Amino acid sequence: MRLLPETAAAATVYIFLPLASSSSELYESERIQEYRKRKYQWPPAPSEYVPNTLGWRSIHQRRFNQTAHIEDKEPAAWNAYSVLVHSALLSPNFTEFGWGITKGPKSLVDALHENLMNGLEHAEDLLVEDENRDSEDDYDEDFEDSENPLERPLMIPNEHLNQRALEELLPIQEAWSGVQLKGEIAYGLRVYRNQSNLQMHIDDPTTHIISSILHVGHDPEGEPWPLVIEDFQGNTHEIYLETGDMLLYESSKCFHGRPKRYNGKWYSSLFTHYYPVDWDAEQVTLESLYRIPPTWWELPDQTVEDLDELIVTGTSFKEPECEHDWCSMKKTIKSKSPPNLAFGQVVSTDGEIKSMGLDSEDEL
């Protein structure tokens, strides 16, 4: 979809919409009509946040404020609003916390680990991941100009196991989310290398709704490398995964990434993405566009004290004034899989181990 140029009160706007999946065109005046037809207001009312928790509202109200102060309105501010209105206001939440740790099926994990080890034995023959690939992870904008090419991950061919993973992990995703899902993609094996990092971001809201990261293995001499994710209560978590651990997460709603640099030789995972069978991707895209405020291109008259700068590239966000480019890293909750966590169980923010109703791997 393309937002067509149209002379507004103070500007002529040309925007290409990265979250849109349609080839149709939309005038800005038509978009604003849809905004008003829905009786939207800006800033959003507290009751509009989904879920309506104090912590969720707080982190997004701050982020909306940061977005308003982005001087690069096209495309950075527009992209930021597109991402944030979907995450904060429009997309339903399917779980209480937005993430959970469970165990992957042992037979699948063993097969993936064997393929990983075989691939690492011939690392010189592996291809570097395509920097233009539209995957669920967006790299740091400085990545392409990096002086260290080893930062970009390698890819171990895994097609024969990707489809198996997409099918076998589906019942786990459905049990956790409580909705019937359709598989979109399984992607791996991605092998991160020394000094890799990923900006905080959300995934494609048209297809990457309920997702997982199945950790296959990492350099035993490397430093622990956390996946950082925000929950629906406004907490920021550092999740440390071991081989066989599987992070379940609402990936187009909860900001996540690996803003810390990895110190180690290799770190590998498999990624899977699903969406509800009744998910209307085109309508999701349109509603996100309609919810962007008509004043998105304006700068506020007043500055806000102690408001950290926000830089947006595509769907990736960073705060360069803070360590690791993410200010909430100053106060995080560190989590890992409990020793007694079994297959079919999940643990999340509250620390309680809960059954997902999957008694054995034979059910997959």
Structure description:
- By secondary structure, the chain is α+β, with helices and mostly antiparallel strands.
- The protein is 24% helix and 23% strand.
- The protein has seven helices and 19 strands.
- It has helices spanning 28-37, 54-68, 73-90, 106-121, 159-168, 170-177, 281-291; strands at residues 2-4, 15-16, 25-27, 99-103, 127-128, 154-155, 181-192, 198-201, 210-218, 227-230, 236-240, 245-249, 256-258, 267-276, 311-313, 316-318, 333-336, 345-346, 354-355.
- A seven-stranded antiparallel sheet has the order 4-12-9-14-7-6-5. The chain has a seven-stranded mixed sheet with strand order 15-16-8-13-10-11-17, covered by helices on one side. Strands 2-1-3 form a three-stranded mixed sheet.
- Helix 2 (54-68) packs antiparallel against helix 3 and helix 3 packs across helix 7.
- The longest helix has 18 residues, at 73-90.
- It is globular, with a radius of gyration of 21 Å.
- The two termini are 39 Å apart.
Main features:
364 residues, alpha+beta, 7-stranded antiparallel sheet, 7-stranded mixed sheet, 7 helices, 19 strands, 24% helix, globular
